[in-house]
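Quick log. Single chain, no ligands specified.
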Amino acid sequence: RFRQIPTFGIDTIRRFSDNVSAMKKLAARDFEDILQCAIPAFEGLLPDPADNNRLMTLLYRTAEWHAFAKLRLHSDHTLEYFEVLTPIFGHLMRQFRDFTAMKFKTFETPREVQARQRLAARKDSRPDTQGTSSLSQKRPKILNLNTFKWHQLGYYPETVHRLGTSDGYSTQTASIFDTIFVTLIAHIISLH
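-> predicted structure:
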C-alpha cells in the first residue's frame, strides 16, 4: 500500500520500496515518510471497524506528537498542548501494545530467527547449532515499550522548554539546504 502513495516535493515524501516492512537501516527521514503516509496506507486494513478506528487514532496521535516535536518555534500554548499530548500518546501506545498482544499472535521475522541462530552459533562456536529445533522455531514477540527511547519521549516537552527546539542541534535543517542547493545548481547547469 505504501508503494501506491505518490511522491511529494523534492524530498518531502520519497518513493517507497516494494516492501516497507523489509526495509533495513532506516534513516530518520524514512521513519518520518512512513509516519506521514501511514494513515492512508493502513486505513481499512483491519477487518473489525473498532480495531481499525483504534489504529487510526493511534496513527493520528503519533503524527500529531511528531509534528509538535518537530516544531521549530513553540509558543506557551503549543508547549502546554505538547505536554498534555505526550501522556495521551504514551497511554495510547500502551493500549496498543496490550491490545495487539491479546488479539494477534505475533512472531519473530525470519531475519530475527536467523540472527538469533547466528548469535547462538557464535556463542557455542559450533556451526551445527542451527539445526536444533528450539533455535529454528519462531518465538512469540510483543511490542517492547521498555526501552530507553520510549522512556525519554515523556521528557521531550520539558527538554524543548529548557533547551529549545531540536532544529538547533539537528542535522536535518542543513540537509534540507544541501538538497535545495544541489537542485538549484543542477537547474542552473541545465539552462546553459
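The chain has one domain: 2-105+158-191.
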